[in-house]
Amino acid sequence: MAGRTKSAETTALDIYLERLQDHLAIETKAIETVLSELPFCERYGSVSAQMEQDLILRRKHVSDITALLSRHGRQTPAAHETVSSILSTVSSLLSTGEESNLLKNVLTDVSYRAHQIASLNMLAILADRLGFSSDLSLLERLRNEETASTDKLQQNLPVIVTQYLANH
């Protein structure tokens, strides 16, 4: 760190707030993806129902993360920048808008969700280390909801594949 002043160094709080903003971008992109995919999944009852539930969950998560950022005096970026090239790649795979890619999109969604859970795990660790107990409680709830939603999607995979095959 030679040559850097103390004020130019990134603090643990800065890192935490940046990761919160990154997670907000993840959730925002997930909402965009669900909205673009929803019309193509109407004939797949379980997929469509899961996506509707996920949309409600994701909107709530955006609200919760925005509240955390606000609590720490950080304004949410207007455009919610993308967080990395890997998320851009995943989201482009998810938003192909073609019903024929349903199985690929569902599998991609599972991996995307794993990234969200890992992000929430990291945020929870940071909140704990910084002593933000109310943040930690909220982040643990978000992670549990995301995990439950992911588990439900995994459980529905046989039904999704069966419905997909019946339509082809």
Describe this structure in words.
The chain is mostly helical and 168 residues long. It has one domain (11-166): Ferritin, CATH 1.20.1260. Helices cover 75% and strands 0% of the residues. The chain is built from five helices and no strands. The protein has helices at 12-37, 45-71, 85-94, 102-130, 133-166. Helix 1 (12-37) runs antiparallel to helix 4 (102-130) and helix 3 packs antiparallel against helix 4 (102-130). The chain is elongated, with a radius of gyration of 18 Å. The termini are far apart. The model is unreliable at 79-99 (pLDDT under 50). This is DUF892 family protein. InterPro entries: DUF892_YciF-like, Ferritin-like, Ferritin-like_SF. It holds the Pfam family DUF892. It comes from Gluconobacter cerinus.
